Amino acid sequence: MSLAFRTVGILAKPSDERLSGTLETLVEHLHARGLSILLDQATLPDLPGLRDYSRTTRDEIGQRSDLVIAVGGDGTLINAAHCLAPHGKPVLGINLGRLGFLVDISPDELGSRLDRILAGEYVAEERFLLCGRVLRGETVVHEGIVFNDLVYKVRDAVRMIEFETHIDGRYLFTQRSDGMVVSTPSGSTAYALSAGGPILTPGLEAIVLAPICPHTLSNRPIVVPASSCVEIRATRHSRANSLVSFDGQTMIDMEPEDRLNIRRAAHTARLIHPADYDYFHILRAKLHWGGHP
């Protein structure tokens, strides 16, 4: 068993009826191997098999755990990554639903997969995050970290926004559209893909800007360096209200003069995968690409 993982924190998707059996199996498995277990007090249900274990805050889980296991889907792992990135702790995903891009282990193979990871047989990777700030004058109205994307979009269903985009203080373009997806490589297979953006492999140091339903078809997605500072703001001619979505989990309404400032976050998300992890296999499965010719 790997000496690196002595204390394991567990987070879960709240109110999922499929949780109970997987959680109790997971906790029993970890306990049998002599590991200390910390349960997230915000998401773990009150099950008989969990009552002998400590419940605590996510901040304490981040401080005390050597490994954090997120039980749910990609959204659960993304939510865990937001909380745990400042602590630099690796996150492993157990999948309760369909195959995800991020959660690797299905409940029926939990024991064998987990034992190999605890024995040190795993793939570790870091993925950069983005930090978005909504600025009103020089005041920061909201600041948040995203794993996938920030989406600047129209708040009024039947109108388009007219907005400017600047990169590192240099004017890029003005466009009329339903908005813009600003994505990490991790998020390039999410909303940005639906908006016509390219797929970026996770290790690339780049940011995708993908317009949503642009009025002019020449407005195409663009990829810029991960070190770039992206700023988006409505023009004075725009008659639509706008908002910004942080990973689809937090929505912030924007006033006409507000600016959305986006840059690389100070922290990265650390992920743990089984030793046979293959990103291209996941792409083929999720996107239904053909097999060998």
Question: Can you give a write-up of this model?
Answer:
With 293 residues, the protein is α+β, with helices and mostly antiparallel strands. It folds into 2 domains: 7-121 and 275-287, Rossmann fold (3-Layer(aba) Sandwich), CATH 3.40.50.10330; 129-266, Tumour Suppressor Smad4 (Sandwich). Helix content is 18%, strand content 40%. It contains 6 helices and 17 strands. It has helices spanning 19-32, 58-64, 74-84, 110-118, 191-194, 279-287, and strands spanning 7-12, 36-40, 54-56, 67-72, 91-95, 122-136, 139-146, 149-154, 161-167, 170-177, 179-183, 206-212, 222-225, 230-234, 242-246, 250-254, 259-274. The longest helix is centred in the N-terminal third of the chain and has 14 residues, at 19-32. The radius of gyration is 21 Å and the shape is elongated. The N and C termini lie far apart (41 Å). The mean pLDDT is 92.
- Low-pLDDT ranges: none
The percent of residues in helical segments reads 10-25%
**Given the helix and strand composition, which structural class is it?**
alpha+beta
Mean pLDDT: 92
The CATH top-level class label of the largest domain: Mainly Beta
Task: Please work out how many helical segments DSSP would assign.
Answer: 6
Rg of Cα set: 21 Å
Shape: elongated
CATH superfamily of the largest domain: Probable inorganic polyphosphate/atp-NAD kinase, domain 2
What is the name of the CATH architecture of the largest domain?
Answer: Sandwich
CATH topology of the largest domain: Tumour Suppressor Smad4
Number of strands: 17
Number of domains: 2
Instruction: Output the strand order for the largest sheet.
Output: 7-6-17-14-9-10
State which percent range the strand residues make up: 35-45%
Q: Can you write the helix and strand succession as a string?
A: EHEEHEHEHEEEEEEHEEEEEEH
Biggest pleated sheet: 6 strands, antiparallel
Distance N to C terminus = 41 Å
